[in-house]
DNA sequence: CCCTCGATCAGCT
DNA sequence: GCTGATCGAGGGA
């Protein structure tokens, strides 16, 4: 289980990159599901026009971003989808990493049931809405500590072969901040959402 | 392959 | 009343 000192660091870009290859574990209502993170985006806080916390804006929804690191920020997007973020950095520095895609490992039958999909194809956990749905992560989990048995991130000896970097997806409203290279993903991984094009980072 | 469109609600104006 | 850190279905090339 990743400890507080993984999340409570000043550089959200480093954390977003290092989350690639880590494993999300949920055991809600006794149902175990795990998936390896293959795509993330960094949201850099009050100076980042794409972030909900841009300009230091606080609402009931974003309040958790201003809290301590290592907690879940799950918000409702387009009124339908529940997007899972991990809060980073110190209290009052409202940064987070969005989990955009993952590769299923354990509990695929439960993921199929939660998503209503018939087959375990690449769309099962492709895209942030699908990741949350498959793993059972909902807005009610906002504020949940990620240092808990039933919901946490863990590491194994997996080493990502090649990491790609690109601008973030769906943030055109953010002006020139939409061009910042804050999206990280594993090269050639079929679970990655959106465009697979980007620059080789490592 | 590409495009458009509807779903549905928190937060802002 | 409008927009958004989305998704999947449907239609055309």
TrEMBL record:
Pfam families for this protein: Pur_DNA_glyco
Keywords: DNA damage, DNA repair, Hydrolase
GO biological process: base-excision repair
Top-rank taxon, per record: Bacteria
GO molecular function, one term: DNA binding
Protein's UniProt keywords contain Hydrolase: yes
EC nos: 3.2.2.-
Coiled-coil features, chain-numbered ranges: none
InterPro entries, per database record: Formyl_transferase-like_C_sf (IPR011034), MPG (IPR003180), MPG_sf (IPR036995)
CDD domains: AAG (cd00540)
Enzyme superclass (EC): hydrolase
Similarity field: Belongs to the DNA glycosylase MPG family.
Name of this chain's protein: Putative 3-methyladenine DNA glycosylase
Classification lineage: Bacteria, Pseudomonadati, Bacteroidota, Chitinophagia, Chitinophagales
């Amino acid at each position: 289980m990743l400890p507080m000192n993984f999340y409570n660091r000043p550089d959200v870009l480093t954390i977003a990159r290092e989350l690639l290859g880590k494993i999300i574990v949920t055991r809600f209502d006794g149902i175990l599901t795990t998936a390896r993170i293959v795509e993330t985006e960094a949201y850099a806080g009050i100076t980042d026009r794409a972030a909900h916390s841009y300009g230091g804006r606080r609402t009931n929804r974003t309040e958790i971003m201003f809290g301590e690191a290592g907690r879940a920020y799950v918000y409702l997007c387009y009124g339908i989808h529940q997007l899972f973020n991990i809060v980073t950095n110190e209290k009052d520095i409202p940064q987070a990493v969005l989990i955009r895609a993952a590769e299923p490992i354990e509990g695929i039958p439960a993921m199929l049931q939660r998503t209503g999909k018939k087959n375990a194809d690449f769309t099962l956990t492709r895209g942030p809405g699908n990741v949350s749905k498959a793993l059972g992560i909902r807005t009610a989990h906002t504020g949940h500590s990620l240092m808990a048995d039933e919901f946490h991130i863990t590491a194994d000896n997996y080493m990502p072969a090649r990491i790609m970097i690109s601008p973030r997806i769906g943030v055109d409203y953010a002006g020139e901040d939409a061009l910042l290279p804050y999206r990280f993903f594993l090269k050639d991984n079929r679970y990655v959402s959106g465009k697979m094009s980007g620059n080789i980072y490592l």
